[in-house]
Amino acid sequence: MDQQITQWLHEDESEDEEACEVAVPDLENDVEEDGTIEDFRAEILDDNTEDSSSDDEIPLWTGEKPTRSKIPRRNILFHPPGPKAAAREITTEQEAWSIIFTDEILEEIVRNTNAEIGRQREKYKRDRPMQNMEDENADASSFTKIRPSFAQDVSVLEIKALFGLYYLAGVLNVNYVTTKELFDKNSGVGYFRATMSQARFEFLTNCLRFDDRSTREKRQQNDRLAPIRNIFDHIVKVSNEVYSPSDCCTLYEMLLGFRGRCIFKMYIPSKPDKYGIKILMTCDSKAAYMIDAFVYLGKGSCPTSVPAAHFFTMKLTEKIHVTNRNLTCDNWFTSIPVAKELLQKQVTLVGTLRRNKRDIPPYFVEIKDRDRNTAKFAFSEELTLLSYCPPNSKKKKKVTMSLTMHPTADPDATIQLSEMIEYYNKTKGGVDLMDQLCHKYSVFRRSKRWPMEVFYGLLNIVGVNSYVLLKMATKRATKRRHFLKKLALDLITPQMEERFTWPSLPMNLQVLFGGILQKKRPLQEPSSAPTAKKRCAMCPRGKDRKTKVTCGMCRKPLCGEHTEAMCQECVTKNN
């Protein structure tokens, strides 16, 4: 499974040294057939060049190699990776999705959405006469408030169907197609019309809410993410509870594309969407499973007494503390103090360092006299510092790495250097892979409300996480496209079956349902009780024809002109 997932990862090959991420070049093209790197040379920091700063925070780097051992205890993983607890028993796509997107979340969304529907329903009320439409002198008592059918309250069953349509649009890559096209009778997607009407789909999407509006203003004073905080934190918490990551995790950022009004909207030119909401995330490096996440809320997101990178690194790795796992991150997160503190938490670190860090010895920063394809090593207690100059780069530059996972590096061993850099290249893309998978079959729809964009991002993340859970629990090789399509159909089918039983369902939808559900609509038994005469539904109002005859399918009253006799056998055959 790891090989198949890793194939989706495409690493960046050209990044500036001062950019947010330093790309370490792959060594595959620089290795000869005999497996050794051509003209490789390594040096150890001499005693004459060791850093003798008196600052206690700056480590004392030396060329003395630490004592060797077979496998350090901090690199031994005691927790097997894979699903945990109830996640081991899942067998279907909907079970995998529901174990993360729990009923508790759905009920909270339904409750808050119905509250918003109650507010917006007032806009759709229209005054219509109860009787005697021709009476121009009718008083106000003869009028009533008639609500359109699409403004009714939503249920858990229907909200699941709505999310299923979001996933289906992502699988079919029609998430940015207008709703008018999606629900078109001729060229649209039949599943959308069979699940709900276009007006209902637009109304529910507009009314989706994730928190109590009455207390939002007070909560937003201390938390900018208040409109969706409970949902976000609950999904992150459950995702971590049902999955045990592999021996290595990746810490990086993901951008949710959004160009509307948002006080903490970011601009990151290196990302495909460029503008949006930044999420700092920890993922399993091998499976791209989201373990922890934090929405960057701009100024005030972290204490002023602690560097932002240090704070976020420690916060987003709390779930893997005291587990002997490794963390791979780029040069914005990596620093010597972070590496030391993580080591105290029994977490090793592999990452690139920026050249302006004061922890790096001056001897490592010099590049003018450096030859290509050379490396320098320095050691300080359990830390290893590697400075590597790639062999085939357009301009001479170097990559400085801080490691606590490979403290016993032998500078004379070409294989050891290759292992360090290849390990970083192999494990640095966990969050990038998650981002790529989310963009591949994205549920995002255009919206001016940033909480909706965060929610769409959560649906994408849950889609990836549930896919990983099902694949590991069942040991089945399933394509993610097939998984998401089956999940979407499982979510919308109960709503379609309920709608199929409606007595007033139009004939064109009855035909559509019959093709999708492969079912025949049951005939309704005629009522034996006497019924009052009603006006024919097919005749113009001016004729005012009254009848007791009703259609056996839709129960509409019909006069003799609009009825046709048919035996029970023919009705069953044509149904």
UniProtKB/TrEMBL annotation:
<dbReference type="Pfam" id="PF13843">
    <property type="entry name" value="DDE_Tnp_1_7"/>
</dbReference>
<feature type="region of interest" description="Disordered">
    <location>
        <begin position="46"/>
        <end position="66"/>
    </location>
</feature>
<feature type="compositionally biased region" description="Acidic residues">
    <location>
        <begin position="46"/>
        <end position="58"/>
    </location>
</feature>
<protein>
    <submittedName>
        <fullName>PiggyBac transposable element-derived protein 4-like</fullName>
    </submittedName>
</protein>
<dbReference type="InterPro" id="IPR029526">
    <property type="entry name" value="PGBD"/>
</dbReference>
<feature type="domain" description="PiggyBac transposable element-derived protein">
    <location>
        <begin position="94"/>
        <end position="467"/>
    </location>
</feature>
